[in-house]
Specification:
alpha+beta; 6-stranded mixed sheet; 13 strands; endonuclease activity; 7-stranded mixed sheet; nuclease; endonuclease; DNA repair; single chain; Deoxyribonuclease I, Chain A; globular; 253 residues
């Protein structure tokens, strides 16, 4: 495990041609059952414009907990949480929310309810459709959810789109392959930082990922181990997954 200082990804900015560099973070936060202060410090250090959350609080006072995380992370709640059975989207004030939609996916009896948090965000003239997901542990249900996810992404009617989340699948899996066959796997396109997203000390796997459609330029993507301000102690204390940070250049119309 490397502890070398990691060069930062490009900063958020609007280019002279109207395109926008957007920093997007995907993070499974285990219902905020761990150290929320550490979680917020990790998020702030990554300086995201958008956070695709998985396992957001879903039960008692879930809205209050989501607001607490947004406030501590210097972000605002866009959509999702209990209404999507876990996926949620947070954003900085840089993002203008054009629309947001919560989706519950068909559920297999005996398995957890799953859903999608979706939004269309604008950064100046650049528009980005965003989907946060947490797919099933069951292979067949997960594959069906992957197909529904791609259909929902197309229905956003945004020229530039991104999917981020906990896939419960590895790069050699059928559902991961379905998404990677249609979208860019951001880590494979522009690897940066650490690859594996499972908790430090657990078997190394990449089950959390960011995908972007072909119109989006991936400038870098990976786990921000060693990034200035991201402490290993906070990563261990915050939750049982590691975050995935991506920098994306989104063209203007």
């Amino acid at each position: 495990m490397s502890t070398a200082v990691l060069k930062d990804l490009p900063a958020s900015r609007t280019e002279p041609d109207g395109s926008a560099v957007v920093r997007l973070l995907s993070y499974n936060i285990r219902s905020m059952r761990d150290d929320v202060g550490a979680l917020a410090r990790v998020i702030r250090a990554c300086a995201p414009d958008v956070v695709c959350v998985q396992e957001a609080p879903r039960f008692f006072r879930w809205r209050k907990k989501a607001a607490r995380l947004a406030r501590a992370s210097e972000l605002v709640h866009v959509t999702g949480g209990a209404t999507t059975s876990g996926p949620m989207i947070l954003a900085s004030l840089r993002a203008h929310v054009e629309r947001a939609d919560d989706v519950l996916l068909p559920r297999t009896p005996g398995l957890h309810q799953r859903g999608l948090a979706t939004a269309v965000l604008r950064f100046g003239r650049a528009r980005l459709g965003v989907v946060s997901c947490h797919l099933s542990i069951d292979a067949d249900e997960r594959f069906a959810q992957g197909r529904l996810l791609l259909a929902k992404l197309a229905s956003l009617e945004a020229a530039h789109t991104v999917v981020a989340g906990d896939l419960n699948d590895r790069p050699d899996g059928r559902t991961f392959g379905l998404l990677a066959g249609t979208l860019q796997d951001a880590w494979a396109t522009a690897p940066w930082g650490r690859e594996h997203t499972t908790r430090l000390g657990d078997p190394e796997q990449r089950i959390d990922a960011v995908f972007a459609n072909q119109g989006v330029e991936v400038l870098g993507c990976g786990v921000p181990m060693g990034l200035a301000g991201v402490r290993e102690a906070d990563l261990r204390a915050a939750t049982d997954h590691l975050p995935v940070l991506a920098a994306l250049r989104v063209p203007a119309p």
